[in-house]
Amino acid sequence: MTSTVGPPPYYENHGFQPENVYSARQPGAYPYPQYFSTNAPPVPSYVPRVATYQSSRPVAHSSERTCASNIKKTIVIILSILLVICCAIAAFFIWYFVENRCLGSLIECGSSGVCIPPSQWCDGVSHCPSGEDETRCVRLFGPDFILEVYSPVSKSWYPVCQDDWNDDYGKIACKDMGYSVDTYYYSRGVATEVSFKSYMKLNRSAGNIDLYKKLYSSDSCASGNVVSLRCIECGLSIKSMNIMNRIVGGSGAMPGQWPWQVSLHMEGIHVCGGSIITRQWIVTAAHCVEGRYSDPYSWRVYAGILNQNEMLLRNGYRVQQIISHPDYDTDSKDNDVALMKLETPLSFTDTVRPVCLPNPGMMFQPNQQCWISGWGAEYQGGKTSNNLNYVTVPLIERSRCNSVYIYNGMILPTMICAGYLGGGIDSCQGDSGGPLVTNKNSVWWLVGDTSWGTGCASPNRPGVYGNMTVFTDWIYKNMQANR
Ligand code: 4AZ
Description:
The chain contains six helices and 22 strands. By secondary structure, it is an alpha+beta fold. It has two domains: 115-230, Mac-2 Binding Protein, CATH 3.10.250; 251-481, Beta Barrel (Thrombin, subunit H). Strands 17-18-19-22-21-20 form a six-stranded antiparallel barrel. Strands 11-12-13-16-15-14 form a six-stranded antiparallel β-barrel. It has a three-stranded antiparallel β-sheet with strand order 3-4-5. The longest helix is centred in the first third of the chain and has 41 residues, at 58-98. The chain is globular and about 95 Å long. The site of 4-(aminomethyl)benzoic acid has 12 residues, from strand 21.
């Protein structure tokens, strides 16, 4: 980031100058008039002392001198400490203004120095002095990843017409969503089933200006195609599904079957699961990183390994940052989601790949077939499994899951239930934070993160998962703010 701040004020530091202790200096360098002979050599001169009556009190005289010199020493020490503190404060402010003008996860409004929280970015209300928080708002809509741009003027989202669009613009839009340009996948024109009333179009004659200044709303789109934008090749699994049942009641996974699944270790022990969404970001549950688990440096992340024993022989990825949902509630498990940022990016392979975050406008049906995976216990009260297990679970409608005989109103809008009311198949201790996914349009989508449940696999006590659709805005804003 460039800085518009000018150089700091210059103060000449003369240091500490006690009385006349250093008064005899090189004559040329001393700035004050000299009242004594300039022919005298520039060395200190000592006047021989003559014993007087007062010298009969030598003890008292020396203790006064010791006391005075102690006071001087103390003053020197205090001033030195103050100087060090001032330098540290000055260094902090220089770093703050040059490197990172917004503290924590706040996002700066352009280069104005005004910082706002991610939740106020693209929320339809202008908070920045020049409205920057509402002018670069892009999203991918529905299962076809249709690129939409927000217009602060009409306060609505428009699809982008494919005419004159190219990959360079696609990369800018992906960057504005928080993705890194090196994972960019494609921009493609698609004919949509529904016809749109208005589009965002590129102004061909506009010069080399900002993408968003080139866009204008129009009722027509010559090609009739809108931009489908993929910022990362997500949701691909090389392994075709083998829907066998053996988590509680699950099957052992094959390499590459759930390539987004990671195991989160603390002090060499598997604690929770997580899902890869980009080379550097992992989605997990907020309850996995609570209290003493909130220190990023204690965690190691293992990707592409199915066996826990094998992980112990490897180093794992270090975690740089943990961001828990600010509205996570320990008691109700409301907003049970967190992000982990890896210190070094993952290399994607057949066994290490990201899952797709659900786009706004995607509907998951009640009873929709989903899959859970993890190293959690294979029965209530059991120990962590050595191998990655998975099982298929249908989604359960919220109203049904909230009924008196199931969870009696405990299922909040940030939660989603999945499993079997008859019991026998479920996620369990150790599966927390891991993925609940579904396959739609040949893409795997992250529907939820394993959160809680009463026991494991008991009748009328299905698994409860964080509802990813309501968290995606928060995830993108945090990825943007912590690039
Ligand atoms: C847990 O503690 C946990 N049966 C995960 C899932 C369920 C219960 C507990 C759901 O990690």
